Structure formats: C-alpha cells, structure tokens
Amino acid sequence: MRAIVSVRDLSIGWGAEPILEDVSFDVMRGEVFAILGGSGCGKSTLLRHLIGLEAPMLGRVHLTGIGPPQHGLEPPQFGVLFQSSALFGSMTLLQNVMLPLQKWTNLPKDAIAAVAQARLRLVGLTGFEHHLPSEVSGGMKKRAGIARALALDPQTLFLDEPSAGLDPVTSAGLDELILTLRQSLQVTTILVTHELASIYHVVDNCIVLDRLAKGIIARGNPSDLRDRSTDPRIAAFFHRRPTGSIA
Amino acid sequence: MYTPAFTIRTDEEGGLRSLRIAGRLTLADGRALWAQLCAAVTTGVAVVDLRDVQMIDGGVAAILLAATNGKVRIDGASGEVERLLRLYACAKGSEGPPVVTASRGILVQVGDNAVEFGRELQRNLAFVGDLGAGLAAFVRRPQSVHFSDLLYLMERAGADGLPIIAVINFLIGMILGLQGAIQLHRFGADTFIANLVGLAVVRELAPLMTAIIVAGRSGASYAAELGTMTVNEEVDALRTIGQDPQRFLVLPRVLALCVVVPLLTAFGDLLGCCGGAFIAMIKLDISPTAYFSQLQRSVELSDVISGLIKSIAFAGLIGLVACQRGLATRGGALGVGRSTTSAVVLVLFGLVALDAIFTLIFSLLSF
Ligand SMILES: Nc1ncnc2c1ncn2[C@@H]1O[C@H](COP(=O)(O)OP(=O)(O)O)[C@@H](O)[C@H]1O
Ligand SMILES: [Mg+2]
Fold this sequence. Notes:
The complex is a heterodimer.
Chain A: E1 3-12, E2 20-28, E3 32-37, H1 43-50, E4 58-63, E5 78-81, H2 93-104, H3 109-122, H4 138-150, E6 156-160, H5 168-185, E7 188-192, H6 196-202, E8 205-210, E9 215-220, H7 222-228, H8 232-238
Parallel strand pairs in A: 3-7, 3-8, 5-6, 6-7
Antiparallel strand pairs in A: 1-2, 1-4, 8-9
Chain B: E1 6-13, E2 16-25, H1 30-42, E3 47-56, H2 58-68, E4 73-75, H3 79-90, H4 106-140, H5 147-157, H6 162-186, H7 193-231, H8 234-240, H9 245-284, H10 288-298, H11 301-327, H12 332-364
Parallel strand pairs in B: 2-3, 3-4
Antiparallel strand pairs in B: 1-2
C-alpha cells in the first residue's frame, strides 16, 4: 500500500494565527480516512488545503499521482463534496452532475444525461433532476453534491460532512456506497464526519483534531481509539460525553 | 491512435444473439461502448455477456444499464463487476469564543495596508493575465466558451436594458437641445441645434450614458452574482472539477458586453438625436426633416465610429472590473455588498478616466 496523501509538518490558518500546527499524517490508497474533531477546529480548512485550494503557512501536502487541479488542463483526479455542497445555483441538479462529464468526456449528449441520471439515482434523487438547488432540502443538496463528486469516477473522494442533514436510512446507504467504491474500485475516501455509528462502520483510520491543542490529539482505528484511549478528550468524543465547555 | 481497452463481438447461439464484451470498461471508453451498445440493442441482441470483463467503473455501469434499458439481459457478471452493477441497478430512486485581535499601532497598520495593496495589485495583474490566456484559448478553440450562456447574458444585458437606455438617451438629447436652443436662438443660428446635439450625443454622451447604465445594471449584477458564487464555494467547486472560472464565468460576460454595448450605444445615438429633434420642433419650429438633413451634413461616419470604439472599451472595462471584484469577494453576504459597491464605484471612475484618455487620443489623431 502506498500513501495517496501525505502531509508533513503542516501549519494552516486564515489570518496571522495558525489554527492547526505541525500536522503530519498519511492516507493510504484504498482506505477510508476520517478527519474528526469538534466544531470549528479546522477540519474543513484542512480539507481545503489537502485539495490545494489554500496555500499552507508552513509544511507541505503531497498528493501521489493526483496533482492539484490544473485548472482546465487535465481532468480532475479527485471528487470533492464541499460542506456547503456548493452546487451551481443557476443549474438544475442534473445539469450540476452533467457539467464535469460535458467538460471531460466525449460521450454523446444522451449518454451524459444517462450517466448523470444514474449518479443521482445512486444517491436517491430520482425525480428531482430538474429542480434547482434552491428548491431542495439541505440533505438533498448534500446528496447532489456527492453525485457531482462521483461524476467522473475519481479514484479519490474528499467529502466534507456528507451525512449532515441525512436521515439514518439514507446515511446508511451512503456508508454502503463508500464501502462498495472502496471494495470494487479501490477508491480512497477522505471524509469529515460526526456520525459515530458510521465512523465505526466504514472508517479504517482517523485523526482527531483539537482546537485548543491546535493539532492532532489521536490517530488510528476509531474502534481501537474508543476502547483503548485514556485521554479524556478522546473518550468524551467517542462516548458522546459533554466536557463542560462546548469546545 | 485510439484503441479502447475492451473488445466486443456478436455471438449467435441457438437463434439467440448475444453481445460478448471483454476487457476493462472505463468511462474513458464510454463513447465507443455507448455507440456499440445502442447499435446492438436496435439490431435485436438479446443478451449482453460480461463473462470476460475484468472491471467496470460506475460510469460504465450507468451506461450499460441505460443503453440496455431493461430490454436486454445483462449476463455473466461476477465479483466486483456484479457488485457495481447491482449498486447502480438497485439504487432508488457551535461557535467558539470570540477572537480577540490585539489593536495594532498606526505604523503597523500603514505597513500592512501597503503590503496588502501590493498583493492586490499582483492579484489584479494575474487576473488580467489569466483572462488574456483565456481569450487566446477562446480564439484558438471558440467552442471552449459556453455559447448558450453567452446568448442569455447578451439578452439580459442588451434586450432587457433597451427601455431604460432609450429613455435616458432621449432625455439627454432633449436637455442638450433645450440648453442649446436658448443660446443659438440669440444668434439666429437655430438650425445648428442639429450640429450641437448630434456631435455631443454621438461622440460623447450616448457612449458614456449607455456605459453608465450598463455599469449599474450588468456590472453590479455580475459583481453580486460572482461574489455570491465565490462565497458559496461554487467557484472553488468549479476549480475542483477542472473548469477555469476565468473561462467559464468571466469570458462569456466580457464578450457579451463587448457585443451588446456598442449596439446599445448605436441605439442611444439614434434616440439622443430624436430628443434633440423633438426640442427643435417645439421650441424652434424646425421641422424634423430640416433637423435631420442638417444632422446628416454635420455628423460624419467617423464621429459615430469613434463613439462606438469607445463603447467597446467601456464594455470591456465594465465586464473585467465587475467580474474581478466579484471573484475577489471574501466573507459572506457583507462581502458581496462590499464588492458590488466597489465594482460600481471603480467602474464609474474608470469610465470617466477612460473617456478622457480616448478624447485626448482622438483629438491628437484629429479623428
Ligand atoms: N473563509 C474563512 N475566512 C476566515 N476564517 C475562516 C474561514 N473559514 C473558516 N475560518 C475559521 O477557521 C476555523 C476553522 O473552521 P473550519 O475549518 O470551518 O472548522 P470545522 O470544519 O472543523 O468546523 C474557524 O475558527 C473559522 O472561524
Ligand atoms: Mg467544517
């Protein structure tokens, strides 16, 4: 197994103050990797650095075989679901999913529509193809965002809180989707999530970030962390216990 | 030379025609696969045999299912191929504490602002450079721009703006006519009202007023639109799917304005002159026929063209500045408001400055 993403001594932040310092970790090919941590600790920010949308303050991010998107020169090697879904507001859900296919495949128009439709069916959005993003719920936008991320069958997926706003049944379906993609196509998935049940079910490895520590406070398999860790912050996270302050 | 990573052959067994596919099926070969499958289905193949297929991806699973559309049996899939097919076939449809920023000394603030100004300048230069690259790519491969967008943008900036452009330019022609009529009448030079209104409108006022209206209508809306897209991470999403925002968002808008604004200006020229004719008729008793034949003698084609050249430059300025401000938006709804304001202010300032430069150049060239 080789590392798809390797992060070394990364410090990131929006202003002068870093929000994470000296972060290092590897994501192996074909694994489901989770970035965990309290709200506002910098998970989404870290994800934006991994996909090359932000420049790090210090350190580096290396993506094996999947260079940063070469704006418009070669097809993107990974699919991204943004926390806000980031659907194109002036296009229907179907058009959103068709866009990458139109740009990067030479399929005829009806085939593109069929593929896009199948992606939407996969995330349970049949019947909403011609709705605008503003006409569907938050969870549905998330699912359409996942369909768009899958459009070109990328080898690597970055998903920011894919199950936020989803009901338990849909959320379980999403877990199955991630596992099938890993099993059948060795797709690597890097996701931010808070869904404990889903974490134990699909995640191979994780890192836990902490806002006050400004870094990684634990790493490894989530079930192991739950059962073995002695750190009260880790125990609180995996056992859903409040820690006094909402941090 | 393109060779797909799969092979297809047709078998006939006991009157049953089957399509036997072998190899690795990926979306990259989707076009060939789609064409062959569609052809096979119409010629009455009953079975698609996937026994010799080593792998498929999700896109191909979707293509297989859509092309066969339940009319043809898909057979022989096993292992991961079957699993992916099944996946596609069965699918149904807190806040932290407030951040305390230390107050900064005045020298530090000045220094920071200077650095920020330098960065801003660098970003703007990069923006213009990127757009130049986009334009070059467009010239080489015109289909890389979304033309459906272009037509829609042209309609929004052009056709929808006609009434206000008409009214404003007509009023401007009237105002000029009224001011001129009083002065000219004193000297008994009534017929020269056509010269005065015509030249002022065609060379200066119609291009400028039209551009100002377009700046208010389209400039503001582009800045707000792209600003909202930036804030909603839609522009980032574009980048991650390999679409260059310059080419996808900025270029069509700039092109649309460069086509539409000169047309609007020509329309404004006409309406402005009509405004003058109206005043000439009611204040000075000059018939429209006399007015327009005087106009024909005084305004030359080069006057009209110089106004139209200006208007193309104005259009480029409006599109560039508005889109650049939009894409530079930071920080939520507030940021969208800020960039819309700064877009309109910058454009208005730029229009007047550009007009001055053009007037200078034209007078040097005596054009
Ligand atoms: N666009 C931005 N500009 C400035 N600060 C930001 C921006 N996005 C996030 N932040 C700050 O970065 C920190 C981490 O945010 P984020 O990565 O979104 O957290 P998480 O995804 O873990 O909930 C927060 O304190 C937030 O205020
Ligand atoms: Mg987040």
